[in-house]
Model the fold of this input.
Amino acid sequence: MPLAEKTNIEELTGFKVGFDFKLSLLGCTVKSPSQSAMNTLITKCKSAKKPQVVAGCVPQGSRDLKELEGVSIVGVQQIERVVEVVEETLKGHEVRLLNRKTLPALDLPKVRKNKFVEILPINVGCLGAFTYCKTKHARGHLGSYTVDSLVGRVKTVIADGVKEIWLSSEDTGAYGRDIEVNLPILLNAIVAKLPPDGSTMLRIGMTNPPFILEHLKEIAAVLRHPCVYSFLHVPVQSGSDAVLTAMNREYTVNEFRTVVDTLTELVPGMQIATDIICGFPGETDEDFAQTVNLIKEYKFPQVHISQFYPRPGTPAARMKKVPSTIMKNQSRELTSVFEAFTPYNGMEGRVERIWITEIATDGIHLIVFTSLSKVGHTKGYVQVLIIAPESILGTSAMVKITSVGRWSVFGEVIETLSQVNVKMAPECSPCSNQNDTWMEDRSSKNLIGWFLRKRRNHDHKKVDNGVALGLKNKQDWALGGWGIVDKSLLVGILVSFLMIVAVIIHL
Done:
C-alpha cells in the first residue's frame, strides 16, 4: 500500500539528503483502495511539481496507467537500483525499470521500522491464479530463495540483535516447489539456527490451504517448537465450495477444515487467523450463510473481512456483480458475528512467557507476544499489554495475565528473563501448574511486591478493553489514584518490615 504519510525520503531512510524529494512506495495491487490512494498521492506530488519515484506491484502489473505518465517507476525485482533511479529522476530524467531478473538480494541495505523484527521474504511470485487477484500479474511465477541463503540471512540478523523473524511470502506453503525443496525442509533448517534460550522467535507467514495439506504433520511439529509461534494465517475467503470454485482457489471447504482441525489437534494452543471476501460475483444468500456458519463454528481469534473489489484485467472483473448494498450488509453482519467472540476468556490468572517487541499505540503500554499456548496470545501470538520501562524492549519476561479484553490481554511483569538463565523445555506446554507454583513462590518472598501487584491488578480491571487505541488520562495509573486505606496498609507494611530489621540487627 502507498506510504502516504512517509513520502519524504529523509523520513523513509533516516538520512539527510539536502533537498525536497517525494517518494511513493506501493506494496499491494489486490484491492482498488490501495491503487486509488496511490493515484491521489501521485497527483498531489505532480501538482506541487515534486520529483517522484513509484515502486512496487502496481507499476509492475499496470505500467500503462495514466497516472504513471511522466513518473519514474521501479519494478518489484529492481528495487536494489532505487538509488540510481532517484539520482536520474533528480536530473530531470524519467526512468522505467520493469524487466524481470534474478531474485533481489536478501542483504540489501535497510532501515528496519522495528529494530527487533526482521521481515524475511522466502520467495516471490506465486503458483495460484485466483480469478480476482492481480498479484501474479505483478509478481510473476514462483521464485524461491535457496535454503542456504535464507539460513545465512537468519544467522546474520540474529547476530544483529533481532528478536523476531517473520517469514513473508505471497504464499508461504508454496515455497521451494520450483527448486525441489519444501517448506518443512526450510523451517527445520531455520529452527536449528535459533538461539536455544528462546531469545529469538520465528513467525511463519500466510499460507493458502492447497500447498500445506501434504505437509501438515511436519508443519505442526515445527509450530510446537519453543522458538516458533503457534500461529498461522490461513485464508479461506468463503465457506461455500461454489464460491471457492468461482475464485479458482483450488481447495474445498472440507480441505480447509482438515488444515484447521489437524493443526489444532497437533499443536497445543494453536491459533489460526483467516480471511473472508464478502460479495464475490455470483455469491448467493445461501453461500454467505455457509461462510457465517464456518466462522461461528471455529470462532477464529482473527478474521480479516473485506469487500470484493474488481481488479482490471482479472476474470472476476467481468463477472456479474453483487449489489453494493448487499455486499456492505454482508460485511457488517459478518463483522458483528466475529466481534462478538471472546477468544481470550480463561486466560486471566495464567502465567506466561512473553517477548516484548514494541510500544502500544496508547503510548503507555508495551506490546508483547507470548509463547505458550492459546493464540489468545501465548505462544499462540496473543497480544499482551504491559506497563514497563522502554528498557524492557527486546527482552523476554514472565508475566501474570491480570485481565482480558476483546483484542488483547493485560499482563503484569513478574520477572525479566536474561538470555543466560533461561533454559527452554524441549516443547512448550501451555500455562502449566509449574508456572503458577513458580509465581506463587516468588510472590511469597516479597510481601510489599505482593501488595503492589494486587493493587495494580485492581487498576487493570478498570481499564477499557480498547486501551490499545489510546488512554485519555495517563494519570489513571499513578499512585495518586490510591485511597486512604491503600496508603495506610502500605505504611503499615513498611513499618512492620523496619521493625523486623531492627530486631534482627539488635540480636
Summary: Residues 484-506 form the longest helix (23 residues).
